[in-house]
Amino acid sequence: MPVLAVPLMLISVGLLVWGFFNPATASAVCLVLGIGGALLMLLTNISYKARAPTANAEPLNLTSDEVTVFRAYPVYFLHPNIAIQYSSSFSVLQTTCLIWVAWMAWNRMWVQGGLFVVLFFLCLNLTRVFNPGHFFRFHSAKGKLTPEMQDRLSFIEEVEAKLTAFRERQ
């Protein structure tokens, strides 16, 4: 289990227990932390897009399609371990959101419940952004890849292979 996900799980459980006794305050704190963390990680991903190589540039010699894929998932390619940590953290946050939505519905707190639904789908998208290899391979194993997704997976694998070869040379 990734290291970053463990403290997030403990914090999530603590907030859920607190939410049992004081749902309004605990849900507000959880939403602020969740949305703030998701936006921070999204900004991290955006800032890494500037570090993407250009097409046919040394030392990687990526094609234009591979550069497009690299720019779509820069943290995944530049720092794969960190990207997997982020992806696992978003998975934990998604699970927490599902529990919070049910608890907010039970307490008739519709606005907070709606915000947790938004956070759930934001985390769903960011999980794919930070670990696209897992996302596409998972759907490939289930036979649910569209031709566009299959092309994206092949470009991801080509970039991974070139980055692995480049890292081994260094």
Topology:
Blueprint (H helix, E strand, L loop, with lengths): L4 H17 L1 H26 L15 H9 L1 H5 L1 H27 L3 H21 L1 H10 L5 H23 L1
Helix pairs in contact: 1-2, 1-5, 2-5, 2-6, 3-8, 5-6, 6-7, 7-8
Your description of this structure?
The structure is a single chain. This protein has 170 residues and is mostly helical. The protein has one domain. Helices cover 81% and strands 0% of the residues. The protein has eight helices and no strands. It has helices at 5-21, 23-48, 64-72, 74-78, 80-106, 110-130, 132-141, 147-169. α1 packs antiparallel against α2 and α3 (64-72) packs across α8. The longest helix is centred in the middle third of the chain and has 27 residues, at 80-106.
Keywords for this structure?
170 residues; mainly alpha; 8 helices; 81% helix; 0% strand
Please outline what is shown here.
By secondary structure, the protein is mostly helical.
Number of helical segments?
A: 8
> Which ranges are low-confidence, i.e. pLDDT below 50, for 5 or more consecutive residues?
none
Q: What is the string of SSEs from the N terminus onward?
A: HHHHHHHH
Q: Helical content, roughly?
A: over 70%
Radius of gyration: 19 Å
Overall structural domain count: 1
The rounded distance between the terminal residues' Cα atoms is: 29 Å
| Residues in β-strands, percent | under 5%
How many β-strands, per DSSP? 0
Shape: elongated
Largest sheet: none
- The average pLDDT score comes to 86
Q: What class, by secondary structure content?
A: mainly alpha
